[in-house]
Specification:
Strand order of the largest sheet: 4-5-7-6
Number of strands: 7
Distance between the termini: 63 Å
Number of helices: 2
Order of helices and strands: EEHEEEHEE
Radius of gyration: 20 Å
Helix content: 10-25%
Largest sheet: 4 strands, antiparallel
Structural class: alpha+beta
Shape: elongated
Length: about 80
């Protein structure tokens, strides 16, 4: 239930529903690093993503649907060893 019909603007399609939409454009939502994403080859047919950052995960170029949280960089105190 991770495919959506773009032409009908329908919610998730079940496997049986895919047959009814065989000649329609569908988009598959995938999980990548615990976030929703779509493959570039699928989404670039629908929207201009030239200004969106892409990632490569498992040899597939993807774009995340929501911005990924930025991890805060924790600065460690400098340690100096003097012998």
């Amino acid at each position: 239930k991770n495919r959506f019909c773009i032409d009908c603007i329908m919610g998730p399609l079940c496997p049986l529903g895919l047959q009814e939409h065989a000649d329609h454009r569908t988009l598959q939502i995938r999980k990548a690093s615990h976030f929703d994403a779509v493959r570039i080859v699928d989404i670039q047919k629908l929207v201009d993503i030239s200004q969106i950052q892409t990632y490569v995960i498992n040899s597939a170029r993807i774009v995340f649907l929501l911005s990924r949280p930025q991890h805060k960089i924790v600065k460690e105190a400098s340690r100096v060893c003097r012998s």
